[in-house]
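[audit] Reproducing an earlier prediction to check determinism. Same input, same settings, fresh worker. If the tokens differ from the archived copy the diff job will pick it up downstream; this log only records the rerun itself.
[audit] input (593 residues):
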Amino acid sequence: MTPTKTDQSPAPPVLLSACLIVKDETAVLPDCLQSLHHVVDEVVVYDTGSSDRTVALARRAGAWVYEGYWDDDFARARNAALEHCQGEWILWIDADERFVCNDVRALRGTLERLSSAGNLDALLVDIYNMAGDGSVLGNVHRAFRLFRKETCCWYGALHEQVDLRPELVGPRIVQAAPLVGARIDHVGYTDEIVRERNKLERNLRLATAELERTPRPGEEGIPEFNMARALSAAGRPEEAQGYYEKAMRLVRKGVPFRAVLFHMVQNLAPLGRYEDIARYARTLKDSSTDSAMADFFEAVALRRLGHLDDALALLRGVKALQTEDGFALPEATLHAELAGALVEAGHEEEAASVLLALLREGPTLLAMTSALKLFAGIGRPPQDLAAALPEGRLEEVGAALILVPPVVAAPVAEALYDRLGPRPQLLAAAVKIAPRLPVLQALEWSARLRSIGMDEACPLIAQAHTSVLEPRDRLRAALTAHAAFADKAAASLAIALAPGIREADLAAAIKEVNALCPTLTSAFAHAASGPGAPSAGDVGTPEGRRCAVAVGLASLGDNAFAQPSAQSENAPGAAQGQHGQVAQLAAVGADPS
């Protein structure tokens, strides 16, 4: 193995070492190392066979790099790295994690005091597991991530754990306390990284191998627990459940027993086994000093079993989703469940307040679409909802607007535009929403989009092209676009729509054309007096259409055929001699030949 810097060890004393094992971590390692800058005294990196630039990146950042190997055993690799650490305290961190500390001086002061006292082996650090695209908190758990090198090391090929060194096991257990003022953010199980790294398949392989080994005394049931977690994460909850139940019978009471129950009740949800969830949640409650998480799980089950009042009573009593062992779920999870139960119970106003709190904390796509529908249903001002939607999550906001009916989305989109102006994400949503709105609302969004050069995204033009709309509605959209923006393509489209207008609607359509775009009246009437478009359905007979056009033109009187303007004189079929064409079309209406 080759260290990075020189063969000369750092000058003692070294208080804090960061210890990593890595393989092909080019994408994530720089952010991890940056988070350790000015926090630790040294970084020790044990590489298990990278084929990318991981080793070079670590060396450039000043880490001590040792080139090792991988044998499907996390504890073995971590302990190999630990041998090279000079620090009294070890920070266990991975390349896909970031150390977050608001006061480094306070942290180091704490470690120095603990070194002097000598009464603690480890500190429990909160780990924030990010989900989805990495911007959403999935859950929180707590683990020994800071420990004293002389008393602790790693055990376990998969989901390895810190425990006392073998020579110390027996006389005592790990002496630990929670770390305050720092945490670790873990992005390694976000959707993209899981796909790239095939972690689920790897974990199944390691869990299978672990089952074949004899567990350490006191670790009975842990291999079954790890296999259950690996199967559950791989989308195989039915298989996972058998291992969870076996692990529950084997593990020690206390933290391991509660950990199995915590994960097992979540595994049961996709199986729809809500009676079992309620039963195991009560078992978790009986073994816990803090019942909040157990009450939440039981409420989830009761709601789906139809016991709404009992579920609400439990949910209203839960203040935070956390356990005494450091497991936690985002507050948004609690508020989403409570809001859903309140809606089902008919407490819409209370549900709206809960949803507003949820959106401010950690909005999900489901929460936003639920809020949009609820606010529209109970008549709450759209400005209230727009104010709660986070400016930093406009892509998700735009997606939510597209997923709900336009009549629901439009008022909130308007309120967001008033609040934030022409943001790209909001305008992108408007491109999808506005073509399904009434023509005047579509006109408003068309003007906004055209004002920033997005003429090709004009909702009015899109509306005019939408074949599922009534022909008169499509015509009105095209006429409005031409009248408002002198859009020649819209003029052509209006005239092209004429053969599809039903005979019964032709007279009214001609009056509408003349009112909105009088310079198009002649060309539209000429196009409408033909045989009609066969694809448009029952549009009448040629004779009937010519008569209907004649009636429409006659109703215009002196208001017919305004002088063509410069902006429309090139429209297809535009009249050069308006009086001659009036006479011609009138004659066509009187004489079928």
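[audit] rerun output stored. Observation attached for the diff report: The first strand starts at residue 16 and ends at 22.
[audit] end
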